[in-house]
Amino acid sequence: MTHSTSASAQDTRPPGPWRMALRSLRRNRSAVFSLGVLVFLAIASLLAPYYARYVAHTDPFVSNVAGSIMLNGQEVDIMQPNDNLLHLGLSPIGPTWHGSYLLGADSQGRDVAARLLYGGRNSLLISFCSAALCLVLAAVVGIAAGFCGGIVDIILSRMMDIMWSVPVYLFAISLSIVTLSDGLHLGPFIIESDNLILPICIIALVYVPYAARPIRGRVMALREAEFVMAARCLGVPRWRIVLQDILPNVTSTLVVLGPLIMAMSLLAESALSFLSIGVQAPAASWGTLIQDGEGLIYTRPMVAIAPGLAIVAVVLALNILGDGLRDALDVRDASHREQ
């Protein structure tokens, strides 16, 4: 009898706040669809080597201006005469809508679809790692400033204000130019200029103030909460209060900021790569693909349109997902307060 009573009590126990947030997110169809789009693009980018080898049958990093493909039983040159009256000059083949050169070729005769998937690997990797590193740094700065207060808060807040006053892209461009020529030297460690760690660190650094400020405000509110004041009165060490009381309650803010920071990081990476100070050749990203298609915008616009549409799709999906997470976590916080 006692066992059945305890089992029924466990079955009727209300769900936890995180489970309620997950349920709320599942009911948000736009957020679930956006998450599906992101997962699909991530998986497609991870499968880029298999697409290039078994579908496109080409190396997207090797120039192929003198090559040709079989299209509808006929051999077609990859570089074709221009469509002007005199047929002067050559233009890459346009979209074939078949396995090889599905979206056409760029000015070097390389498969745009294959390079689009390879570029997605770098763009998504850089934006995700930049967002993660940015949130870690912002959490450290925001919690330290909000919880410690006093001189620590003044110093960290003024540093964030100085970084905030500099335009994001100007700040990122300046840091990229400084590290582009000789890389980054950190004592015995040397990070080469073509290493993806450089754009990851640069983009993460420039967005720290944007994430640290709301975290600081959240921590300042939590610092005056009753459970934190009770822990202080009981003599609980400050580091334990931060780990057990402050950090878990800041997690929801970090989760909501994650997709938004990742979207901004993707735009920053694309801008830097377009200016040739982000991802360096022979690697590719969506920004470098847009740069490759700049000179073909009137003859073969798909070279630039395809990566542009990919950027738009990811940024839009991340923003919709961020809104869904915010709404779901608002439900979580409300239920947590009720409990």
From TrEMBL:
Q: Which residues form the signal peptide?
A: none
Task: Report the membrane topology from the UniProt record.
Answer: Multi-pass membrane protein
Its keywords, alphabetically, are:
Cell membrane, Membrane, Peptide transport, Protein transport, Transmembrane, Transmembrane helix, Transport
Q: Which GO terms describe its biological process?
A: peptide transport; protein transport; transmembrane transport
Residue ranges spanning the membrane: these are 30-52, 125-156, 168-190, 196-212, 246-268, 302-322
Keyword Metal-binding attached: no
Q: Where is the ABC transmembrane type-1 domain?
A: 120-322
Location in the cell: Cell membrane
Pfam short name (any one): BPD_transp_1
Q: SUPFAM superfamilies of this UniProt entry?
A: MetI-like (SSF161098)
Task: Write down the Gene3D superfamilies for this protein, in alphabetical order.
Answer: MetI-like (1.10.3720.10)
Its primary localisation, in coarse terms, equals membrane
Q: Does the keyword Transmembrane apply?
A: yes
List the GO terms this entry assigns under cellular component, sorted alphabetically: plasma membrane
The highest taxon in the source lineage is Bacteria
What protein family is recorded? Answer: Belongs to the binding-protein-dependent transport system permease family.
> Which protein, by its recorded name, is this?
Peptide ABC transporter permease
Q: Which organism is it from?
A: Acetobacter pomorum
